Amino acid sequence: MKILFIIQNIVVGGVENQLFRTVEFLSINKEIEITIATNKIEHNDFLLSFISNNQNIKLIQIPLIDIPQKKLITFFSRRYKKFIRKIKLNKFYRIAYNTYDVIIDYKNADFFSHLKKYKKYKKAKVITMMHGSYSFLNSFFGESRFKDILNFYDGIICLTYKFKKQLIENYPMFKDKTFIIYNSIDFNQIKNNLIKNEMNFNLPETFISCISRLDSDKDQVTLINAFYRIEKIFPELKLVLVGDGETRQNLELLVDKLNLKSKIIFLGSLLNPLPIMKKSLFTILSSKSEGFSLVLLEALCLEVPIISADCPDGPGEVLKEGEFGLLFNPGDVEDLKLKMIKALENPQIMKEKARLGFQSLYRFDINQNTEYLYKLLFDLINK
User: How, if at all, do strands 33-40 and 58-61 pair?
Assistant: First the structure.
């Protein structure tokens, strides 16, 4: 079986981590050949580590020619470059459709337009994986386009039962080609990463953590404002933010404005943030929307207590509607403040929730879920 995964770009993030984890376990099966195609290959530490450990997995770049908008680039030169790119894309999708048994558009139908445009070459089965929440994606695409997208793919993989339920309620005609596969974790890898304590910096004695990309959808603004409301109640407490992104500068300005520079620590992106999470009193997910959150699984695996935004669709399902951690209303500073106080004043209750969550992790076992994905692909190809 030849599988092509396509993804816009490869950066340090939950979706990319899950992609790498999935292909690593699929590639153990010697009957499978795996290729990852992406628009842009940037050789960061994250990618280099993956390449060095998985030399049997091919990584290729989708044809992309930058067309500068400077005045000295003539109209004809720009048209020529667009023409060349069109030829190269045509060749790429013709080969892809005829070389692979299945193409997996890995994130939210990002390549729908191109896959549909070149469908005259289509021989391979085409699947998409929906990583966002149903409400967000349906609103983002609009009902008409979303229906067109769902109709095109031979298989639709959802990350939560909630997403699948909403999709089938609104588009019952796609029921038979809609499946659910949870994001998964490798328990052994997490244990090994915990042992690899490669921190070359000192952590505060008492702190809470947030491990996430820094962008508006992850909503660290709400977290910082909630922390500001409790920092005088718990003067020794610090907040450690692990991650980087487009909102970092604005977040640092907010921290400075609230006079919290001595209390909130920005560590940037780290290949292995798990030792930091493990040392924290609890970890917080503050997202406005989260199709599924790997960081919650990692926290449960380490039995680290959790406070999470109850955003659509994943956190409530992972935390069993609050049984395995505390949930707060997304964007609600006061609610998050109260949940943080509750967690700090009731550490034993939080540890018990984390313990129960750890016992539920069989749902997210990478071996079990990868085996199911392989069976799904096999059945789809031989349908």
Answer: parallel
Residue 363 to residues 1, 19, 39, 293, 357: CA-CA distances in angstroms?
A: 26, 18, 33, 14, 11
Q: How far apart are CA 298 and CA 341, in angstroms?
A: 23
Residue 249, burial from CB neighbour count under 10 angstroms (0-12, 13-18, 19+): exposed
Task: Extract the tokens encoding 297.
Answer: 């699984």
The Cα–Cα gap between 261 and 241 comes to: 12
CA distance 179 to 351: 33
Instruction: Provide the b/e sequence for 147-170 (b: ≥16 CB within 10 Å).
Output: bebbebbbbbbbbbebbbebbeee
Phi/psi for 130 (5° steps) reads -95, 105
- In degrees, rounded to 5, the angle at the alpha carbon of residue 196 between the alpha carbons of residues 190 and 199 is 120
The total number of residues written for the chain in this structure: 383
**Nearest by Cα to 136 from 276, 301, 330:** 330
Cβ atoms within 10 Å of 53's Cβ, excluding its own: 10
Query: Could you tell me if 200 and 213 are in contact, meaning their C-beta atoms sit under 8 angstroms apart?
Result: no
Tokens representing 287 are: 């997202």
Which pLDDT tens digit goes with each residue over 151-198?
999 999 999 999 999 999 999 999 999 999 998 888 888 888 787 766
**263 membership: H or E segment, kind and range:** none
DSSP states along 35-65: EEEEEE----HHHHHHHHH-TTSEEEE----
273: closest CA among 212, 225, 333?
212
Buried b (16+ CB within 10 A) or exposed e, 66-103: eeeeeeeeeeeeeeeeeeeeeeebeebbeebbeebbbb
pLDDT tens for each residue of 200-257: 678 899 999 999 999 999 999 999 999 999 999 999 999 999 999 999 999 999 999 9
CA distances from 92 to 80, 81, 88, 97, 228 (A): 18, 16, 6, 9, 52
Q: Are 301 and 190 in contact (CB under 8 A)?
A: yes
